[in-house]
User: Fold these one by one.
Assistant:
Number 1:
Amino acid sequence: METQLETFETNLRSVRTAVTQTSPAAFRDALADVIDEPAIGAPLPFEAITLEGTDVVLEPTPEQLREAACGVTAATLGVAEYGTVVLESTPAGAELAGLFPDRHVIVVRERDLVDDMATAFERLGERFRNGDGDAVLATGPSATADMGELVYGVHGPQETHAVIVEDAEE
Amino acid sequence: MASERSRKADRIRQVMATEGDSVERNTRGFNEGRYESVDRLDDYDAYKDRARAIKEDAIERLPELIEQVRATVEDNGGTVYVADDAADANRYVRELARERNAETVVKSKSMTTEEIELNDALTAEGCAVWETDLGEFVLQVADEAPSHLVAPAIHQSREEIAALFNEYFDPDTELETAEELTAFAREYLGERIEDADIGVTGANFVTADTGTMALVTSEGNARKTVAVPNTHVAVAGVEKIVPTFEDLQPFVELIARSGTGQDITAYVSLFSPPVSTPPVDFDDDGPIADDSAERDFHLVLLDNGRMDMREDDQLRETLYCIRCSACANSCANFRSVGGHGFGGETYSGGIATGWEAGVHGRESTDDFNDLCTGCSRCVEQCPVKIDIPWINTVVRDRRNRGAEDGRFDFLVEGLTPDEEPAGMDLQKRFFGNFATLAKLGSATAPVSNLAADLLPSRLLMEQVLGVDRRRNLPTFERETFVEWFRNRDVPRPVGADYHAVVYPDLYTNYIRTDRGKAAVRTLEALGVAVEVPDVAASGRAPLSQGMIATAQEHAERVTADLEPYLEAGYDVVAIEPSDLAMVRGGYERLLDAERYEALAERSYEVFEYVYGLLENGADPAALTHAENADGGSDVAYHSHCQQRTLGLESYTTAVLERLGYDVSTSDVECCGMAGSFGYKREYYELSMDVGDRLREQFETPAAADRTVVASGTSCLEQLDGLLARHPRHPLSLIAPNGSE
């Protein structure tokens, strides 16, 4: 029997998303391994881990947005059944950082995984009704078949990489 | 009339030649993908039921939900405008563009904006409008209309797109590969997005409780269209509204599967505008997050005939549509001609008739409504369980009558059915009255057959009735199946466990009595007491031509004819699958519930019945087994389209296998003949194009030596024309005494 985490990782890979597992303590090193510079991002809404002090530029200008090779943002949910991550739209511009650069690094916590879409919608429903109403269910990189064959990297990222942060030791 | 048929035939030929290959290749992929993808869903049927229930409720409560959306969106900080029609919607958006001094407008894909022709309106206002979805961008450059609801440019191959781009943009290095074309479009459109003053999107769904828009995409262009400019206009038909946020979930899991066969698209944007992402001013040097520019959001909810559709009992179901394109991808005819053949001003595919009739008026269905043959393969594929063939039949009936939309609700009000109108198309009247023709043809056989096949007769038939001269005509038999049964010198069995009426459908009765005889012998060998009474024709033929009143008359007569037998405990066994489909499906629309159920519950397809008998212990010893078959034991079986939709294919396969046959089955949606369709001059070539897929499957090395069997009359006729081998009815393989 696969665990939820294993299912999530299997499905991430099946939608062309690379996977790195790490702990809060090892997060900075793991991140350094997966980003391409110049990297931009938005602050992570998590306690144990942060982008502060890394090479990720947190308040990019339009020029930096254009030039960035990599965007680092958080996902507030992961849906194991689909390999989907739920991205936020924040005033700090998380949506933009995860959209413009060719490579999108998504930071998601193991504790924020759910099994299926029905559960995801239950969680999101509460938030949306409380006025926190912007999310993107993202599954793999941007793609199109409009030019005759499947091509990755259209208006959004061409590569996606999930960094899954294990629950911290109690 | 004849010239009209020529024109239609020419148009179809043209589209098949220029776009057919590309459309077929793409839709085949979508179709196969959908079957695989929905197979991975646990309880696909439950998902469809839930989706259907949500839409039924939403459309029922639509006026209340519209007001709720208005309140919620305005509470969030946006503006809602309910537009009566296209002109009203365009006026609103133009005024907005004018107020903003908008120069550049970027759009993500929206069929609703195509419906109202928004781009033209904005261009007239002096804006440069750019489609950012790559398929739409290709169409914009080519100045063409979409040919598919979801993948609008599938009628174009990569080579054609490359040639188009190279000619139009004259890039430094010629573009060739899909990657190069995509990279070019990304950069070109990226610049326009950066410059945009207004972003225009559609919406797949709008939730009333949270004011959330759901956009289902893969490219990322809709996300950019919403995030970058500070003014966002969403145009959505009123039917897009669902009551709650949670209602989105079944649709999110169904729509990509139903459309292109992906489990889910790359992006499902759920946003409750105005969004919290800061807009991007690419002329600014400072951090984006510091920009205090305010966002402006406008939701234009479009009526444009939808509220009238809601009041129309027969068209209302169209509003449940989520525009997934499953009904296009599973449609054999659509696969050959695409949306430029099987489509109206905006919408294409099976559901297009409903949409076009509702938003553009019934006349816009004239050119393509008849391309729906009622084969029913789309019915199981629709994620909201819309009875698409029925809507197409209703509109066909209205076209016959020249009726005002929605004013002739005769089916519900019990208006006395009267004759079909005098001005009705002669070809339809001819095929719709096939029962009369068959009776006459049989009574005057063999002279009727000889006369019909003479060249002058064929030419006249083609000229006046549009019966293509290339088709082989059926041959009428003098002694009908009913007469044969009546004249038999066979004692009625006493104390039989089962009693069954073998229904004398038109073909079995007048044209291929052999299969009726085979059915009788088979059932008697399994211990059934059989009757073959004189029963009216099922009404299948007139219903296909859109002659609903006539079909209803037939339904009433059939029920009256069979009532005494049903009351005496007889089952009804049908050989022709399209007639069984009529009884099990069509009759629900034409009869009251009690009479419909009484008949439908006791009606069986012949192999379904034989299977049941064998399962209940009947001895198959007297039937012909494979080892004694004169054609060998390897069989290639093509099940009839409606038979497959009723889930009956497996009974024939199971019975044949039980008797020792090795059965391989076809994997096509429809053989292409579809009753009268393949006879019609304007559709003959399309019919043969569809049939070609079946021919290919039966001519592979694995299939080429197998005996070909098919359950349906139409399929047998089509296969007879396509293959060198003669196809047979599966009954002929198992009936005792090798009856032919």
Number 2:
Amino acid sequence: MINYEKIIEIVKWKDFDWKMDFTGIKSLNSFEINDLIFYLANQEKFDEFERIDFSTNEGGEFTHEYFKKIGMPEQLVNIAKNVKENIIFDDNNSSCFFDRIKLYRFKQDFYGEYENIFEEFSKIGFSQNNAALITSSIGELVDNAFHHNLGQWNSSFGPLVILMAQNILDKQEINISICDFGVGFLETLKNNYPQLKSEAEAIEVAIKPKTTGRISKIGGNGLVYLQKNIFNGFSGEIAIRSKDSLVSVEKNGKINLLKNNLPFNYGANVFISLKY
Amino acid sequence: MKSINIGQKFGKFLIDRDSGRDVFEILKREVEAFKDGEKLFLDFSGVVILNPSFCDEVFGQLEQSFPGRVVMDKNANHALMVAFETVEETRGVKFEFRENI
């Protein structure tokens, strides 16, 4: 489902160029694309670079994208645009589900899109109920990302949540990624659950009913609702990255640690895969 | 039993907790004005999306504040039922569902 060995490694840092090796990589899913954007934006020396060079040794460089250093978050907007435009999708078999990667600076930005997103899912054949459930699930995750990171956003970017979805046509599969540049699950929950010691532990607690990072201790609906929909309604898959830890979520509420020590020190990314 | 059409009154996309707070206050005033034993029926025809956060803030809180005084439409669509089930689990309440009066 998510193979972090596919994530791009920086193979050369020459002068002020980044060179990223896409050899053998035909496609990335929405989770990997969002994390690529996140990874690029997360580099300490990112501000110094004016050019990102996406290349492959299969037929030489397939694209050059140049952007000017104009400051965050416009810089990040350019990265997102570049990645979306230049990543090779698997032949012509998949498409970016929405017309662009969606970046939100305020949760109200997303509220205005509920109807559009609902319509998009309806168009490809989801019933009204299922389109409503998926749209609602995405909405809860976006809302969670803004609520739980309020006042604690990474200072370079400020509030930022990225939504991306892909429609994999031959598998009749949608995969969706909601990625934020916030503080991660452990930081969010530690006030209410001081016994938690790792991001993986925090995720495992977060997906249980009645778990909430809210000061009021009321809430804890979003991830429970997501599991009900994805596992019962769609027989889908869920994976969550929080800072440097990536877990898959099983139907029984257990988590499997897929990878830790990933090159991220903040933020979270929720991945949903479902069939239609 | 008084009936309120939630979709007509508040819209077809019921999504966030902040909006839910205002809706809760409106519905709370309705119930507080009832005589003993009177119940409020909530008709969800016309509601397309009900986020569990909104559901919790409004209907979960209503049930917790006025146990047994609020009745939900049992013919609400499946997508809404999942939100009700989620809130029952997370808030520990039990909604009453009936046919539309």
